[in-house]
Amino acid sequence: MSSIRFEQVGQSFGDRCVLRNVNLSLTEHRIGIVGANGSGKSTLVRMINGLVTPTSGTVTVDGLDVARHARDVRRKVGFIFTNPDNQIVMPTVQEDVAFSLRRRGLSPAEIAERTAAALEQFGLSEHAEHPAHRLSGGQKQLLALASVLVARPATIVADEPTTLLDARNARRIGELLHTLPQQVIVVTHHLHLVEEFDRVIVIEEGMVVADGAPAQALAAYRALLQ
Amino acid sequence: MIGLYSPGTSLIHRAPTLLKLFLLSLCVVLIGSSPNPWIVSGAAAGVVLLFLAARVPVRAAAAQIAPILLILLVTVPIQGLLSGWTVAALMAGRLLVAVALATLFTMTTTVTAVLEAFQKLLRPFRRFIDTDRVGLLVALTIRCIPLVSDIVREVFEARTARGTRGSLLSIAVPVVVRSLYAADALGEALVARGLDD
């Protein structure tokens, strides 16, 4: 597993302080991050692949400073967004998956082979040549996962990947996240999604307020909701 | 190209994109400049044969060619009265053949293939322009058409749901604002997927 370290990380947008004094070392296989809307959890995970650069402190992935080596870090860390519509950049399903393999020095045959394998893994083979925008919401999120995993990252960060999905699709994505060999970091409001993870972190008003085994951390989060 | 591509394995699907593009341009120029009605009607028959060979869905193809008929409905009588019916028929035939050929190209060529063809065409100019970037620009433009049309539909639905009937401005403002948000999100996704330069 990758080792992701947050050291004295703080983030503010103008006067508003979104994260303060965050110190974390993430080395577990599956990590859940929960917290209220606007608690800073999305900002926190965006720092792992350099989508957001902290205003103070440093984030490192396997010893690489994300602020200075963002491109190398992004090859190790794949990111899944809440709304797959914004993640799909190419017009057809197959093209979107193949897009992740550009500029990697792969031959067209290798790209075709890996794309086909990824589509097969996520049950999208029959939609390979269909326009991506015609897929259902669940299929779009599967496509987003396929497009990220085809690049073989060591870590997957998912920001509320099941929020827009129906119960069945949410469960399907949840099961996939449970079985991936990659390190998985999931931000979610679906608490049951992370109940069997290795570690759960609770963020409240920009600070880590609970961190540990899911049972204990989720109990602390539920207590906060009272 | 957006959802118009109809998957298949015919000779026309498999032909190299640049060759198809070249033949398309050549045919349109030749037919457009030919004063001989026989050549134009021969070309029309050829186009029908090509459609049969490509085995694309008739309905989808017809939907692409139909709009030109509306234009012909207006222009053919005018031209017929002004400069004779032979000229009018010739013009109609040329337009139909050109549009049908372009439709066939669109329906048998994936967007990726078109992008690759463009990148090849631009290769001699690689010193001055980044061909990858131009390709990406075109792909994103195509991708954004359904994205923006979804936004427009949702804004209309929201307006209907609230029972308001506003000015054009009341539609334009939310559409533009939401399109900008979507552009931000798309930019973030591009960065996350390694296009960060």
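qc> The interface with chain A takes residues 1-3, 5, 7, 110-112, 132, 139-140, 142-143, 146-147, 150, 182, 185-186, 188-194, 196 of chain B (CB under 8 Å).
qc> done
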